[in-house]
Amino acid sequence: MSSSKGSSPTTGRAGEYDEWFLRQGRHDRGPEWNRRWFSEVAQVRGELDRFRPADEVLELACGTGLWTEQLARHAKRITAVDASPEVLKINRARLEGSRTLVSYVRADLFDWRPDGAYDVVFFGFWLSHVPPARFAAFWDLVRSALRPGGRVFFVDSLATERTGRGRTPEDHTTTRRLNDGREFRIVKIFYDPDDLAARLADIGWRLCVRRTENHLLYGFGEPRA
Ligand SMILES: C[S@@+](CC[C@H](N)C(=O)[O-])C[C@H]1O[C@@H](n2cnc3c(N)ncnc32)[C@H](O)[C@@H]1O
Fold this sequence. Notes:
By secondary structure, the protein is of the alpha/beta class. Helix content is 32%, strand content 28%.
């Protein structure tokens, strides 16, 4: 992610991220909207359960642990990577007491190589922040982290009427506002599921990319041999 005003959206937003995901405070859009959001999140969690992220799992841009705790229901070990020490601290506290061993790595994903081979690589709400020029390199990184037979699962935002309003296909940024009023310009790309699956097929992935009714995009699969 990148910023144009203020210090850093990841530092400033660490404590606020969950409010967005949990539809609290200014992110509460009313009972009907919230019900649909949580039902679609539950749908993706169900897909993740069916996918079974077992054994050695690498989670990229793990954030505060909203998905780490879902992965921990299946994984033997999780390596969770994020650039922000603030979110890693929240994640560690959330996963305290989990039977799954979670190791934390503070790193910039655009300048990091995995030190092992994993059965599953997972990333939530991260692909939309990868700048277009880094798209192929990011998927190379994912490939390099997988052992033979390894698989990937990701979830992200779908453009909604609100988030996609007024955007042209070439527009890859959006304004992120914090509770204190500070604003940051960040990379945020909304993919069409079929286009994304086709692009990934072109660079050697066999991925099933799907959407929920309103809010979420998710995909799973593996690299072609
Ligand atoms: C939108 S949040 C998603 C967090 C989490 N995956 C989730 O779904 O709850 C994006 C995360 O990417 C992290 N991040 C941003 N830029 C990064 C970078 N260059 N390298 C590693 N992590 C980064 C942020 O700190 C933040 O935790």
